[in-house]
Every structure is written in structure tokens, then in C-alpha cells.
Known about the structure:
Distance between the termini of chain B: 62 Å
Largest sheet of chain A: 5 strands, mixed
Order of helices and strands of chain B: HHH
Number of helices of chain B: 3
Oligomer: heterodimer
Strand content of chain A: 15-25%
Number of strands of chain A: 12
Order of helices and strands of chain A: HHHEEEEEEEEEEHHEEHHH
Strand content of chain B: under 5%
Radius of gyration of chain B: 19 Å
Radius of gyration of chain A: 26 Å
Strand order of the largest sheet of chain A: 3-2-1-5-8
Mean pLDDT of chain A: 89
Structural class of chain A: alpha+beta
Helix content of chain A: 25-40%
Amino acid sequence: MSTKSAQPHLLTCARFALAFAVLPLGKGSTLEPAGLAADRVATLFWVLTIGATVIWLVVVGLALYAVSASRRPQSPRGSSLLIVGGGVIFPTVVLAGLLVWSLSMLPGLLAPAPAGSLEVRVTGYQWWWRVEYLGAEGATIELANELHLPVGEPVELQLESHDVIHSFWVPALGGKMDMIPGRRTRLRLEPTQVGVYRGVCAEYCGTSHALMSLVVVVEERQAWERWLAAQAQPATSPGEALFLEQGCGACHTIRGTAADGALGPDLTHVGSRASVGAGVIEADVPGLEQWLAKTAHLKPGVLMPSFGMLPPPELTALAQYLAGLR
Amino acid sequence: MTPDLPEANESLLSTVAAPAIWAAHFLLSYITAAVWCAKVAGADGSLVAVQRAISLYTVLALAAIGLIGWRAWGRHRLGDSPPPHDQDAPGGRHRFLGFAGALLSGLSALAVIFSALASLFFGSCR
């Protein structure tokens, strides 16, 4: 590989590392479960790991015994018992037990959330998530790259994809589920602890696959209801003229203004989110300024054009407007 | 010494038959469930009919594997060629193929049961 082509790769890697190191997007480990499904997977993991370690120690112990034992003949009956018992019966019983145990977990985890549960549609795009809360009368409340869930309640996620195969995964809350173009898959989550968790796309989906994060905020029911009510409101921040003048409204919607584009993320309350660009940079004024000016540098392959040609005061004004959309 | 061996040549068929039945059972179970859910029952449909079909496949597969294993074990017991049956002689090959066939039958029977177990835990196509 030539230096010329290696350099952008190195820069991209550095940016990925920076994004993961700097942005506080929440906990994202399967070993710190905060949801029902993740909890069961973690239990399975620990039982398997500890069990496998014990079996490994016994096998290695037997191997050491075999090479160090005295050369006197072993009893054929004892040897046969060891071979049949340790080589056939024991693995069969252990594997059958593990199989039945893990299979018995699945129906509960795959069952749909009870009728009347919260339903959220999440659609994967290269490389962001459209999140729509489905109301009673077909009304939806839309945002992007951020999912707020009430603690202790089952949630039914309807997963779709707009372009290629993505996979929805919030390691601390549950298992992963593919998002396949032309199909709707479902995933039930049941968060058990209040907190902020990181979700990722778990299926390689193109250049900026690793820059496709999702922030999942789990909160008490009342706080969640307040948040949802605020998200349902139109934008209140003044100063949309510049946004419209630059044509941003062709791709983005800001409810309450003339901007009604559907290609990119809904920005109605973008200032309230943890990040922009699906986890690339903070959604504050400096972060938004950088995002607007160096979009393709921060997120290689992104569809949004960079607006680095704008005079700095205009960039700042635009960033201030967006950050004010809370 | 070695009695007259029943087969004309040392065919490998008896050793691969049981794993082949395991493969066929797995494939048939998978295809039945996939076609049933995609074409007949729908995404939320019941899997009870598939569970019955897989139970039937399992009984048939286990019966066939049992027969193969029993015959293989009988082949292994024929003759007095000493273990580990690695002599370059018809008697050794005969007992070796019989033993291998019997062990593979045991493994295949277990695998068929494990595959079928999965179907018992899922009542719907979802």
C-alpha cells in the first residue's frame, strides 16, 4: 500500500479512536447488563466461561498426569471408564444441558412485547438511525440517533433499513437484530436500569460503519414522558432564515419551519441530543461548527456536503441556531 | 482366522450413511420450517405442524441410524483381528470400518436429537 493511500486510512482510524475516546455516549458493554435480555446473555457467558475454565483445567491436569504418571500398567477397566465417562457421557450431558438451558431462554426473549407497549420504529441509513415514536392515531414523533426509553417496561422496536443491511445492537440492553431492506424485523428490549447506553451498528454497512452510534437514554417514566412531550413540540429557536437560505431544508426537517426535507435526520430538537453525525461530535456550538465545516472529514463518505465555504460568522450563526434547537 | 467377510469390497458407504442421514435430517427440518413460515403460516404463524413434521423426521432418522449402527457393530464383532485394527489386511479393515460406522452412528443419533430439540422450544414463526 502506498503512503498516499495509507495516510487517509490512518487519519480515519485516528478519528474513530478519537470519537470513541472523547464522546461520552454511554456504557456499551455486554458484561455490564442493564436490560433483561443482556442480563441473560451475560449470565450464560459467565457460566460458560467459568465452566469451560474448570473443564480445561481438568483436561490439562489429566494430560500432565498422563505424561508424568508411573509406567506401571493402568487397569483396563478404569481406563475404559475414563474414556467412556469423560469422553462420551460427560460432554454429551453437559452439551445437552447447555443446549436446553439456552434454548429455553429464547422464546421469552423473542416474544413480542405485550399489546399496548411502547412501539418505536428505527430505520437504518448509511450511517445514521431514524427514530420514530409511533403514537396512537398514526402520529409519529421523529428524531435521529437517539432513543429514550422508560425503565422497567418492555419496548417493541420495529427495525427497517433504507439502503443496505444494518444491525441494531445496544450491548448493555439486549441482543442484536439485523435491519434488512424491504423487511421489517422486531426486537424486544426491556431496560432494567436508568442510564445512558451506547448502541452500534453491528453489521458492516459501508465506509463510516464504525461511525454509526446510537445513544439510548433509559429514564424514569415521568422524565421520559416529559422528554417525549418536548420532542413532540415544534422548534422554538429563532433564526431559521440562514438555515433555509443555505438550502438545508431540502434534506432536513425542522418542524415549525419551512424546512421539510426527508432525506436526512430530523433536526427539530438537534440541540438536545448528545451528538451529531451519529456519535461523531458533540451537538454544541463548537461541535456543530466543525460538523458543518468538515462534514466529510469527520465522517468519510457521508451524503451531506460540507459547508466550509461559508464565512465563519455565518457558520457560527448556523451552529448557534442548531444548538439552540433544544 | 478371519471368517468369510460378507461384503465383496471394503465399501465406505456404511461409515458415511449415518452422518448423511444426520445432514438430510437437518436440511429437511430447516427447509420445512422455512417454507412453512414463508409460504403457508406467515410471519406470526404457528409452528405446531412443523414440530410434528420434525418429530416424524427424527423418529425415522433415529430408526435408520439405529439400524446402520447395529449392523456396523455386528461387523465390528466379526473376526478376531486385534485392535487397533490398523493391519493392512481384510480382517483389520473390516473390523475398523465396523467400529468407525458404529461410533459415527452414535454421534449422528445425538446430533439428530440436538437438532430436533431446537424445534420443541419455538411455537411460532416469529
